[in-house]
């Protein structure tokens, strides 16, 4: 969900690439190869009468720890830090350690009134992570609600499902005792004050001097061109969904060995997600790994296409929609480009570059949305692994899409 509202905007698992400037020799088997930061900000309301995704974050941590236990620890070259908000005013940064067959939490710092929805607040946490867990590489996981690249101030009435959670049967993943069919948005859907825009996340990371190995958004609607382009200077890869993510989030237990690694297994991460959700109560889900380093070149090609071709309004309904909004925001990018009817040579140029942008992606045949009062199932006929909002007439999108750096680079 593109504008990472505080949840997406806030749930951050941080893994950033950092190279030591020291000339001193070191033992490669002892130096920390990867520090993973899991960023789980508050997604409820100010009074805590609505706890948002907090219970699901706890399950997510349990799932990660199941993966750590299965691997019999983290070894000497990997560290995992978690920023977890228990309320709007109470957050803690702690490290997960494996000791005697169990995972334990070692407090690093308690925060009172941490402004986790601001660039400065995120930078503060990242700098603490750098100080406490220096590493050659860093990675970031952000948990929460998401609305992609859209700006929090442009939503007057954010659509979300407020009805009671539905509990079904047990899943095959022991870390998730129940099945849920509500989905995740970015940040807090209970209080817009606990939301953050993507450019603020990018500037927060940039201020630390880090570049992430990857950023994983455990949120809805984050795999779009606008987000990938915005983050191109602060991460190598973006791991996210084009569509909605079921409220329980990522199946971390089965993904863990490939997430927590100096050399992440990106295709295996996508396969683990796909295998889990293909067998879920609602067998729907999509996940992509996007190489943000290739977004500049893609933007240049899109500028060529936009300079010579515009969308025939009669073809708008032919573009694959990958969201459940009444007025679509997130369209499959390749479906959109093909409906622009560019020349054969330009389309070939675009297709070749997309092969570099999308490192790995999988989608079920049907995707699921639960934005309003009843579920919507989306038949997937065209899927490239990344969305674009250029053709959107949604009010929230119209307010800001031409202000995005992606739009400016492609028009």
Automatic annotation (TrEMBL):
Keyword Signal part of the UniProt annotation: yes
Alphabetical list of Pfam families matching this protein: Peptidase_C11
Record's keyword terms, sorted: Signal
Signal sequence bounds: 1-25
InterPro entries named among the record's database cross-references: Peptidase_C11
UniProt protein name: Clostripain family
Keyword set includes Kinase: no
Organism: Segatella buccae ATCC 33574
